[in-house]
Amino acid sequence: MEAAVGLGVGGGPLMPVPADRRWANQDRASPSAGGRLAGALSRLAPQGGLLRSSAILFFGGSLARAVGFLFSVAAARLLQPGDYGLLAYGLAIVGFASILITSAPSGLAAFLARYQGNPRQQEIHFSNWIAVISVLIAVSAILMLPIAAIARLSGAMLLGIIANLLGIAVLQTYREAQRGLERFAAMVIFYLLANVIQLVAVIVLALLGQRSAALFLTVYGLSSLAALAVVQPLAPLALRFVRDTVELQHMIAVARFIQPLVLQTVFFAVWIGADLILVQRLMSSDAAGNYAAAKALGNAVYLAPSAVSGVVITRVSRMPEISIGAFLLRVMALGTAVTLPLLIVFLVLGRQLTALIFGNRYPHVSDPLALIAVGMAIYGLYLLLSGAWRGMGRLAIDAWATGAGTVMTVGLGLVLVPRIGLIGAAGAFSAGSVTQLLTIGAYTLWALSNRPTSRLDEVMATRERRTDG
Question: Cβ(319)–Cβ(454) under 8 Å?
Fold first, then answer.
């Protein structure tokens, strides 16, 4: 879930600029198709750089995710289907094991954006957030031991999962800090570099004859630490960890603020991985490999609305007052416009794409792709509303909507997967997406009728009162 706002680096206007003045009049008279599309999107987007910032995160994030997708494709081709299914199974377990780590950094960006122009306050929030995240890494590592026993993981797989816990903490914290500072170019460069490192690493290992799910899982986790080691000396994060600013009351306030995020992350981890785990348990590892490949491809559908969503978070967080209704209407229109083209491509050309990308090793990968793509598109629209309410400090609705979607997916999956296999898993996943969008949509309509205000100031004031006391 990336996005952006008013950027100070890169990303010029999307409207085409004539390369030569000789063509200026002709360009104005007959704008290109790209120019007409950019103009239409500009009219849909709210003013203030949202489209430009979203474009930076979209194209940069898309490139990074494309490299990440190449990792999935490379792993699928380098591993046997059963081993690739085990890798996907391990990553699904990582989703459960990293619940606390994943959720903790998510609120940091809103506070950093809120205190834009006040480095001292930003470092206070950053330092206390780092302290909380460090505690949660230790707690998560301890909790992983019984999870590994229940899941019957080998020692090598357990080490790979612990490496992922560290990697997720580094990746999420760095990206949220840069998001809050609105340094979106640095954010996507770090993400891209981490994915390039993991892709190159598995290819090199395969050439050396080292091919195993556990080894690839470990590489996946450690890539973020390697990227940090490269980026930090060259372009240091513009925030310092100041030990003297870390206080127990601040840490408690952070922990209380992120409680709904933890709950949402729990539900999300179950929802996003339940369909694959049901296929793994109720069908076979080969079926799980086919389904994992389809889901990896379907993830591309929600990249564009995800970029817009990240912009919405930081934009809303620093607005003392906002005409949220008109803002959300234009944001949803923009999100729909940027989601539909790729969804249509998947619906029409899904079978040809899967044959081109995966070849004959995954004969059933195209079966669930259309339903997965629809579910991802709907989830992308959900992220737009979720981003707005997160930016206003109203986190509970995200948790409840995700919980409702989780119940729908798990319940339907238990019924459909044994009966109609991969199609049933994809249908259950998409039904969960629809449930989330309907839930948060109903809340949005109710909240707009009551003129909602941001709760970030309330949280900050509470934090300051506790510190003063």
Answer: yes
